[in-house]
Amino acid sequence: MDLVPALDEPLKKVLGPATAKVMAEHLGLHTVGDLLHHYPRRYEERGQLTHLADLPMDEHVTVVAQVADARLHSFASAKAPRGKGQRLEVTITDGSGRLQLVFFGAGVHKPHKELLPGTRAMFAGKVSVFNRRLQLAHPAYELLKGDAEEAIDTWAGALIPIYPATAKLESWKIGKAVQTVLPSAQEAVDPLPDALREGRGLDSLPEALLKIHRPHTKADIGAARDRLKWDEAFVLQVALARRRHADSQLPAVPRRPAPDGLLAAFDDRLPFTLTDGQRKVSREIFDDLATDHPMHRLLQGEVGSGKTMVALRAMLAVVDAGGQAAMLAPTEVLAQQHHRSVVEMMGELAEGGMLGGAEHATKVVLLTGSMGTAARRQALLDLATGEAGIVIGTHALIEDRVQFLDLGLVVVDEQHRFGVEQRDSLRGKGKQPPHLLVMTATPIPRTVAMTVFGDLETSVLDQLPAGRSPIASHVVPAADKPHFLARTWERVREEVSQGHQAYVVCPRIGDEEDDTSAAKKKSAEDEDGKRPPLAVLDMAEQLAVGPLEGLRVEVLHGRMQPDDKDAVMRRFAAGETDVLVATTVIEVGVNVPNATVMVIMDADRFGVSQLHQLRGRVGRGSAPGLCLLVSEMPEASAARQRLNAVAATLDGFELSRIDLEQRREGDVLGQAQSGARTSLRVLAVIEDEEIIAEAREEAAALVAEDPDLTALPGLRTALDALLDEEREQYLEKG
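The structure corresponding to this sequence follows.
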């Protein structure tokens, strides 16, 4: 966080242009403040060496180890035909394992003199394999010796900080740069209010920065991390609390359903009772809709938990109150499906203005990019006159030409597929800001919801409606047990013979060969000994002439024309296709109750949450669902353990925790944590749930008392640094 002028100093003035350029380009660090907030990833103890046995392949690593032996070999090569070529092989050890270092040509002289047996040093380079042994070729190194003045100063602490580094800039060079700017840490203005800091016994910011970069004990590191975690959590939560506060100041039209209007008529028609969860969440939404500032609510629910029903009742309540409601879906297939199911659920209540329409009926229109001109013109007219109370569509709804008579509620399905700008421009179509309901079927752990969607209130549907069938999931180890894969196709045939249908999902489409980047990627994968991911088009062909011969097999993928996609989906939904071989286009919202089997090929290439989403496409009717995760990864691999976790539980929240623990937070936080300086450095959204929850409470109380933060200049400065322009817009539009 660029806090004060001393910390705003550009690095090129302090470190010189060459180092500053590498830091800017590769690490996103531009100022002294940026560098001070580039924290060590871990620490090495002088007496305790890194485990060489655990080094990851193809990664840039920094290790501390001792030279066991060094040998200089001569060899002949094209460049040195008379046996004048030289190769220095140095073996280093840390007690847990040994690692070979190699230097060639003119590069052997310096290490030959310096890397003598018994010497301790830090080595950095990319781990590769040669003759089945791990090695570092031409690693950079820094001797750990206590004689030179600078070395004593640099390595004085018993703990050596290891920084996130790049091939162009080793950890110890970053460490030296940090030492250069460390005195400026005294100038850091503290963003935490004194009362909060003292009440929790936290270090001041200058103390924390000194301790994280130059710790003398492990307790120093702990104290510094605790303090810096609070900084990240608190500043982010204050930003979100201010957003919520600003939203609560906006005017909105309260929308209360008429006691005997459209919503009541709809509820009377329902052939089933709502679950307790649906009733509770509906109450929360109706309470929000009745207020005179806009609702901002996130509705999370497992696939099939009945979110659409809750959203439809909210839309009907708004129509009852004289407004219009818009529902945005990420794809045309999904928009059409929502439209079909809403019209079916409403029956004659969806036939407003038509013969046979019910007394309280309204019109439900569909608006997508591929509609014919006449149908589109009619839909636009129905919206502008208010004839249509409900519109369901894709981002075609956002175009300038679309005008509403009185837009009261916007429902966004699958938020993570829908840009913030798009939500914003739809919101601008109301006379006053409309109420907003965001739905997602991706379960989000509470802390992520508080961090990413912190400007939205959260409702969770965690009950499945009666009549949903259980889904059994199994991992199919195709490489170890090929007969398991054969059995997979037999199971598909058995289900089809009982009148059911199946999905087969592949990671790739398969016609990318004309695309040079795909070809390059493919050859790179082949070199690593890893075959390219399986493709829909190849798989469909193999199955149709092989194990699934005689069954009706069709393909579906994102590069097909919208009309073709819809036609395929319609045939599958009507039961005219037995097996649909598809990419993840089916992940969101495709509802075919008769589909009972899902086979996911190369399942290790998908994320945990994505596998869970895909699996939710089967078992939607009365017959039990079966999900088979096919993988060639060895049993001991992390990928297989991930698949075992998916097979072991149907609890999406549990899986999203596992997913988050295995990925970096930044991946999950996506756009809400964009930009190098804004991403979380020490805060881990799963482990630090308590800190985030407490910071949220503290931030809400502080903002309620002093929304403009007039009494806290340090906090304002930290916010300005966090909310660079892009981030500010993100929250504005959230």
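The first helix runs from residue 5 to 8.
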